[in-house]
From TrEMBL:
Keywords: Oxidoreductase
Lineage of source species: Bacteria, Bacillati, Actinomycetota, Actinomycetes, Streptosporangiales
Record PANTHER family: ALDEHYDE DEHYDROGENASE-RELATED
Protein name: Aldehyde dehydrogenase family protein
Organism expressing this protein natively: Nonomuraea fuscirosea
Annotated GO MF terms: oxidoreductase activity
Domain (Aldehyde dehydrogenase): residue spans on this chain: 29-249
Amino acid sequence: MSRLSVRKTYKLYIGGAFPRSESGRSYPVTSAKGDFLANASRASRKDARDAVVAARKAFPGWSGATAYNRGQILYRIAEMLEGRRAQFADELGGGKRAALEQVDATVDRLVWYAGWSDKIASVHGAANPVAGPYFNLSTPEPTGVVAVVAPADPLLGLVSVVAPAIVTGNTCVVVASEPSPLGAITLSEVLATSDLPGGVVNVLTGRQSELAPWLAAHMDVNAIDLTGVADADLALSCEQAAAENLKRVLRPAAAPDWAADPGIGRMTAFLETKTVWHPVGI
């Protein structure tokens, strides 16, 4: 007897769970050739608020974890992604060899950022010379909840904006690529089984123009990465809304090369510097 295959339902990822949008909405996702692939949840403003609440709740535990532990978890994400290499290549499409190469590059990018977890403080911190009998030490600390508008690149680009935010202790709310959201939800399944605490990464799918302005204006979001915003007017309105509570804003770059050496700029973009004084000899 023939059987009906079980079609995958692409939901949101909020607080370690996979809810449908509270609005009940969805939208069709198509391939580059226009073929129907799946229906993805269309997140609402309420879903965005729930994601921010989950990210804020997860922040104390994640930022308080040791840098070594965060690195271990990112390495575990890379291991799990490697194990689902064929599945991700199928979802990416565009030629088997090219898709596998992108998955491999994504795994390598996660390992690269995992290695930086316990080194960024040494590179970005400092012992400052002062005119007095004091130690003056500057150390980096995570900013808090970071909203990320992901680029169109559905896997390597996505990981390249999420990994640097979380490896330094931030939690994030991600607005996945609007035309290509399926890889982001499948990546969420990897995150859910990789020892990453629920709420550290929250993934929303839907209309960028609907979600980004509300996250930019949300008073409990500390920073926003506008890398995936291609509309100049939308980027400007998000920057203006972000100014209300002095959010850090990472502006969209023109055609970034996600395969290039990422450097440490995306890690330091969402770090604050705390400077402490301590008397010598005490």
